[in-house]
Amino acid sequence: MKRTPLLRLSFLAILVSLPACGSDPAANDDMDNQPGTFSATVTGHVSATVSGLAAATGGAGFGGWGIALAPGGPQSITMVTPGNNRPPAGTYPIIVSVQAIGATSTVFFASFVAESGSSSYSSTEGTLTIQSSSATRVVGSFSFEARRGTVGNPQIVNVQGTFNATNNPPAGM
Fold it and tell me: 0.85 exceeded by the pTM?
Protein backbone atom coordinates (compact mmCIF):
# COMPACT_ATOMS: atom_id res chain seq x y z
CA MET A 1 0.00 0.00 0.00
CA LYS A 2 1.78 3.13 -1.28
CA ARG A 3 -0.37 6.03 -0.04
CA THR A 4 2.51 7.84 1.62
CA PRO A 5 3.76 9.74 -1.50
CA LEU A 6 0.19 10.73 -2.47
CA LEU A 7 -0.60 11.97 1.03
CA ARG A 8 2.69 13.89 1.19
CA LEU A 9 1.98 15.58 -2.16
CA SER A 10 -1.57 16.44 -1.08
CA PHE A 11 -0.36 18.04 2.14
CA LEU A 12 2.34 20.02 0.34
CA ALA A 13 -0.21 21.24 -2.24
CA ILE A 14 -2.30 22.64 0.60
CA LEU A 15 0.73 24.48 1.98
CA VAL A 16 1.38 26.10 -1.39
CA SER A 17 -2.21 27.37 -1.49
CA LEU A 18 -1.99 29.09 1.92
CA PRO A 19 -1.93 32.90 1.89
CA ALA A 20 1.29 34.68 2.76
CA CYS A 21 1.67 36.24 6.21
CA GLY A 22 0.02 39.63 6.32
CA SER A 23 -1.88 39.20 3.04
CA ASP A 24 -5.06 40.40 4.74
CA PRO A 25 -4.30 43.19 7.21
CA ALA A 26 -7.81 42.96 8.69
CA ALA A 27 -7.18 39.33 9.63
CA ASN A 28 -3.88 39.90 11.44
CA ASP A 29 -5.64 40.22 14.79
CA ASP A 30 -7.31 36.83 14.39
CA MET A 31 -4.87 33.92 14.80
CA ASP A 32 -7.30 31.54 13.08
CA ASN A 33 -6.83 33.50 9.85
CA GLN A 34 -3.03 33.39 9.99
CA PRO A 35 -1.01 30.73 8.16
CA GLY A 36 0.30 27.92 10.31
CA THR A 37 3.99 27.89 11.21
CA PHE A 38 6.61 25.46 12.47
CA SER A 39 10.26 25.27 13.47
CA ALA A 40 12.41 22.14 13.59
CA THR A 41 15.97 20.96 14.08
CA VAL A 42 17.43 18.02 12.18
CA THR A 43 20.63 16.31 13.36
CA GLY A 44 22.55 13.25 12.27
CA HIS A 45 23.28 12.35 8.65
CA VAL A 46 21.83 15.77 7.70
CA SER A 47 21.96 18.82 9.96
CA ALA A 48 19.51 21.66 9.46
CA THR A 49 17.33 24.17 11.24
CA VAL A 50 14.14 24.75 9.29
CA SER A 51 10.97 26.79 9.72
CA GLY A 52 8.03 27.70 7.53
CA LEU A 53 4.38 26.92 6.84
CA ALA A 54 2.38 24.23 8.64
CA ALA A 55 -0.98 22.75 7.61
CA ALA A 56 -3.06 19.83 8.78
CA THR A 57 -5.67 18.08 6.66
CA GLY A 58 -7.42 14.82 5.97
CA GLY A 59 -10.61 12.96 6.60
CA ALA A 60 -12.86 10.22 5.32
CA GLY A 61 -12.12 9.45 1.70
CA PHE A 62 -8.73 11.17 1.94
CA GLY A 63 -6.81 8.14 3.17
CA GLY A 64 -5.74 9.57 6.51
CA TRP A 65 -5.08 12.77 8.44
CA GLY A 66 -1.76 14.49 8.79
CA ILE A 67 0.44 17.51 9.27
CA ALA A 68 2.68 18.89 6.51
CA LEU A 69 5.58 21.21 7.33
CA ALA A 70 7.33 23.05 4.50
CA PRO A 71 10.04 25.71 4.88
CA GLY A 72 9.64 27.03 1.34
CA GLY A 73 12.69 25.17 0.05
CA PRO A 74 13.30 21.57 -0.93
CA GLN A 75 13.00 20.21 2.62
CA SER A 76 9.73 18.95 4.11
CA ILE A 77 8.42 17.05 7.11
CA THR A 78 5.16 15.10 7.15
CA MET A 79 3.42 13.22 9.94
CA VAL A 80 0.41 11.10 8.95
CA THR A 81 -2.05 8.82 10.73
CA PRO A 82 -4.07 6.32 8.71
CA GLY A 83 -7.09 7.36 10.81
CA ASN A 84 -9.57 9.62 9.04
CA ASN A 85 -10.25 12.05 11.87
CA ARG A 86 -8.28 14.86 13.48
CA PRO A 87 -7.04 13.41 16.78
CA PRO A 88 -7.76 15.15 20.07
CA ALA A 89 -5.01 16.58 22.28
CA GLY A 90 -2.71 13.82 23.48
CA THR A 91 0.60 12.06 22.94
CA TYR A 92 0.87 9.61 20.05
CA PRO A 93 3.62 7.22 18.97
CA ILE A 94 5.43 7.77 15.68
CA ILE A 95 6.31 4.37 14.21
CA VAL A 96 7.42 2.67 10.98
CA SER A 97 4.89 3.37 8.19
CA VAL A 98 4.12 -0.27 7.38
CA GLN A 99 3.25 -0.87 11.04
CA ALA A 100 0.90 2.15 11.07
CA ILE A 101 -1.35 0.80 8.33
CA GLY A 102 -4.09 -1.22 10.00
CA ALA A 103 -3.18 -0.10 13.54
CA THR A 104 -6.11 -0.25 15.95
CA SER A 105 -5.05 2.85 17.91
CA THR A 106 -4.00 6.31 16.76
CA VAL A 107 -0.40 6.13 15.58
CA PHE A 108 1.58 8.28 13.17
CA PHE A 109 4.35 7.67 10.67
CA ALA A 110 6.64 10.49 9.63
CA SER A 111 9.16 11.44 6.98
CA PHE A 112 11.80 14.05 6.35
CA VAL A 113 12.91 15.06 2.86
CA ALA A 114 16.31 16.74 2.89
CA GLU A 115 16.50 17.88 -0.73
CA SER A 116 14.43 17.82 -3.88
CA GLY A 117 14.75 14.56 -5.78
CA SER A 118 16.25 12.63 -2.87
CA SER A 119 14.59 9.74 -1.11
CA SER A 120 12.96 10.53 2.18
CA TYR A 121 14.05 9.49 5.64
CA SER A 122 11.24 7.34 7.10
CA SER A 123 10.36 7.22 10.78
CA THR A 124 11.44 4.36 12.99
CA GLU A 125 10.29 5.70 16.36
CA GLY A 126 9.24 8.88 18.07
CA THR A 127 6.45 10.90 19.63
CA LEU A 128 3.91 13.46 18.41
CA THR A 129 2.27 15.55 21.13
CA ILE A 130 -0.86 17.49 20.18
CA GLN A 131 -1.34 20.19 22.81
CA SER A 132 -4.56 21.56 21.30
CA SER A 133 -6.75 20.36 18.47
CA SER A 134 -9.64 22.39 17.07
CA ALA A 135 -11.55 22.80 13.82
CA THR A 136 -9.16 25.63 12.84
CA ARG A 137 -5.80 24.89 14.55
CA VAL A 138 -3.63 21.99 15.67
CA VAL A 139 -0.72 22.89 17.98
CA GLY A 140 1.99 20.60 19.27
CA SER A 141 5.51 19.20 19.15
CA PHE A 142 7.29 16.18 17.72
CA SER A 143 10.49 14.20 17.97
CA PHE A 144 11.36 11.23 15.79
CA GLU A 145 14.22 9.18 14.41
CA ALA A 146 14.14 8.46 10.68
CA ARG A 147 16.29 6.34 8.38
CA ARG A 148 17.04 5.74 4.76
CA GLY A 149 19.58 3.53 3.04
CA THR A 150 20.42 -0.12 3.40
CA VAL A 151 20.12 -2.27 6.49
CA GLY A 152 23.90 -2.57 6.75
CA ASN A 153 24.51 1.14 6.14
CA PRO A 154 21.52 3.19 7.33
CA GLN A 155 21.58 6.98 7.21
CA ILE A 156 19.89 8.26 10.37
CA VAL A 157 18.45 11.67 11.27
CA ASN A 158 16.74 12.91 14.40
CA VAL A 159 13.99 15.46 13.83
CA GLN A 160 12.37 17.55 16.55
CA GLY A 161 10.28 20.67 16.56
CA THR A 162 7.04 22.49 17.25
CA PHE A 163 4.09 23.49 15.07
CA ASN A 164 0.99 25.66 15.09
CA ALA A 165 -0.80 24.32 12.00
CA THR A 166 -3.91 25.54 10.28
CA ASN A 167 -6.49 22.77 10.06
CA ASN A 168 -7.70 22.56 6.46
CA PRO A 169 -10.39 19.91 6.03
CA PRO A 170 -10.77 18.75 2.42
CA ALA A 171 -13.57 20.36 0.42
CA GLY A 172 -17.00 19.09 1.35
CA MET A 173 -16.10 18.20 4.93
Answer: no
